[in-house]
Amino acid sequence: MSYGRHFGLVALTLLAAGQVQAETTPQATPVPTAGRVSYVSGTMFVQTSDNKTRILGRDSAIYNGDVITTEKTTVARIEFGDGSTLALKPRSKVKIDGFAFDEAKPEKDSLLYSLLKGGLRAVTGLIGKRNREGYRASTVTATIGIRGTRFGMLLCDETDKDDPVCLKALQDAKDRKPGEPALVFDVEEGSIEVRNDAGAKTFEVGQAGVVSSSKSAPASLSENPGLDKALPSSTANRPGPAGMGGNTGLGSDSDASCTVQ
């Protein structure tokens, strides 16, 4: 057999083997997205579950395990696959613990997230209607369950004393635990149940409350400390820091239209 013919047979054999391996090697399953950034004005970044960091812009994908951080002048909104939204205030950090939504299997619906710093306004989507037990907002101080609603939540500690809302909230937090933030919250629509190891309490529309520490039961406040002004709007096209007061947001429209993948 000539050298050239032998080489050709070897090449064909290797090519066939490679083709078989390519056909039999399973393709990687695409990671499903939990949601997307529907609005951002300013700088926002994410630390992924595999410890990678990337800048987020409008239409950037959000995945389970992502830890999202807004900078000091950034307002942003995240929209999930069921229509739920989170509007984040500046200097906030939230972790997406888990999202699952299947139109055919409502019993498996879930939206779980943890507010680690700052504040947000939440609007529940279909999960809040189909499987209320599957929706949970967590903090180090307490967890919030819903009954189909819109609500706000803000974490306050000693570093937030220049914030008038946090200053008032800290004054109302009678049983503060050093090093642990107080959680203050209000209800725009529906109702929420706030729970920790010390107790649980339901809050209805128009009510506000505070949890002083993880060892203190949720307590009602006689008046809203100003969350309606301090947190972004849950419904405006451009959520702004004045929330229900009508401010259209920080930054220009050009800021909000940046797209980063």
Radius of gyration: 24 Å
Largest sheet: 9 strands, antiparallel
CATH architecture label name: Sandwich
Q: At the third CATH level, what is the topology name? A: Jelly Rolls
The CATH class designation is: Mainly Beta
Number of domains: 1
Mean pLDDT figure: 82
Helix segment count? 5
Secondary-structure element string = HEEEEEEEEEEHEEEHEEEEEHH
Form type: globular
Q: How many beta-strand elements? A: 18
Multimerization state: single chain
Question: Structural class, please?
Answer: alpha+beta
- Approximate strand percentage: 35-45%
Poorly predicted runs of 5 or more residues: 242-261
Termini distance? 56 Å
The residue fraction in helices comes out at 10-25%
Biggest sheet, spatial arrangement of strands: 4-1-6-7-10-13-14-17-18
Provide a short characterization of the protein structure:
The chain has 261 residues and is an alpha+beta fold. It has five helices and 18 strands.
Structure explained in plain terms:
The protein has about 260 residues and is of the alpha+beta class. It has one domain (about 35-245): Jelly Rolls. The protein is built from 5 helices and 18 strands. It has helices at about 5-25, 125-130, 165-170, 225-230, 255; strands spanning about 35-40, 45, 55, 60, 65-70, 75-80, 85-90, 95-100, 110-115, 120-125, 135-140, 145, 150-155, 180-190, 190-195, 200-205, 210, 220. A 9-stranded antiparallel β-sheet has the order 4-1-6-7-10-13-14-17-18. The protein has a 9-stranded mixed β-sheet with strand order 3-2-5-8-9-11-12-15-16, with no helix packed on it. Strand 17 and strand 18 (about 220) form a beta hairpin. The protein is globular and about 50 Å long. Mean pLDDT is about 80; it is low at about 240-260.
